Amino acid sequence: MSVIARCATFVATKTSLKQQFAVNNRSSATKIVRPYSAVASINKKAFVDAVAEAAGVEKKVAENVVNAALGVVTASVAAGEKITLTGFGTFERKMRSAREGRNPKTGDPLKIPAAAYPSFSAGKSFKDAVKK
């Protein structure tokens, strides 16, 4: 069973989440909420607050959903799986090849080992929304 399937099963068993979303099953999730438009960046708490307002749910429920979503993305990418959210973007793990570098202090050559790193490629809808 993949990481995504395990996390989806875990989230689906949380009846309080299912009940909250069943009660608030309206199109508010598609509504754009910009309570922090004057701020250059927002932290996780502000993001959770915006999600709670957009979805019409309690902040604790929104926090659980955000944490679960971030956990799924992190675990899946760490396991080498690719996550594509159509219109938003793709999260994946990429490899940086081994290469030769130089010690900046002494100038001696040294080998830099291959390394994995997370990558995000923005989707078309997300790019178009940012351009406006």
TrEMBL record:
InterPro entries: Hist_DNA-bd, Histone-like_DNA-bd_CS, IHF-like_DNA-bd_dom_sf. Belongs to the bacterial histone-like protein family. It comes from Bathycoccus prasinos. GO terms for cellular component: cytosol. This is DNA-binding protein HU. The keyword Cell membrane does not apply. GO terms for molecular function: DNA binding; structural constituent of chromatin. SMART domains: BHL. Coiled coil: none annotated. Keywords: DNA-binding. The keyword Transcription regulation does not apply. Gene3D superfamilies: IHF-like DNA-binding proteins (4.10.520.10).
